[in-house]
Design goal:
Blueprint (H helix, E strand, L loop, with lengths): L7 H15 L9 E6 L1 H5 L9 E4 L11 E5 L5 H4 L3 H4 E6 L5 E7 L10 H14 L5 E5 L2 H9 L4 H11 L2 H5 L5 E3 L7 H10 L5 E4 L3 E6 L2 H21 L10 H10 L12
Parallel strand pairs: 7-8
Antiparallel strand pairs: 1-3, 1-6, 2-5, 3-4, 4-5, 6-9, 8-9
Helix pairs in contact: 5-9, 6-10, 7-10
Length: 271
Amino acid sequence: MKEILNAPFVKQMCKLTSNMYRMGWDERNGGNVSFLLDQEVVKDYLDINKVTKRIPINLDVKFLSGKIFIVTGTGKYFKNVEDDPSVNLGIIRVWEEGNGVDLLWGYEDGGAPTSELPSHLMTHIERLKIDPDHRVVIHTHATNIVAMTFVHDLTEREFTRTLWQMCTECMVVFPDGVGVLPWMLCGNDEIGQKTAEKMKEYRLVVWAHHGIFGTGRDIDETFGLIETVEKSAEIFIKIMHMPIKQTITDEQLRTLAKAFCVTPKSGFLNN
């Protein structure tokens, strides 16, 4: 059996968490990541029949029965993941009954999955219904996105339009727009349910005054999606107090969409 610390999915998680910490998005123990793994690949690195801990959850996620995820741990600092992945990461498998997970590897100090696990699992369910190739959920405290939620209208149409107008690339990267939730208590089922509901329409959901949830088919795609939105929000924050002399018009956004064969979120552009 191969050394699990050399597994590509472990290395990808280490690189991702280190990058987000260096970017200032995940202070202290902020942020969490879950990555749906291919069982056949995991078998090369791990005895998936060996369970180190059984963890009940107050949630029915039977849709994910038997699926295996690598997940950041609760209370863990992203800056430490690369140096000690077996303490800061865990590989879990969802119970057949859908109301718990088995720990197959990791959390060696007795830890547990992120407190946002319900939000992650509910989001995985909704995205998998839409895209069978979906794999990754990232929650991070992207600085400028959080700042933008204090000074901008939180309606999804207006929030998305502003982001599209800040940088030419944005329409191409997230033509489906950005979902937005008002401030809610984090770490519970309610915010998970509300986020998952938004994920039926969006790959990105902003939590006002908190951060962003992003989804995708792999780590690069998901990180790139959040990175693009954060760059757009940064531009907005830098120019919002200045007189705006010109912007990207709706007609130009339509031209972009046509050129790159993407479809803007219905109703988000002016007629």
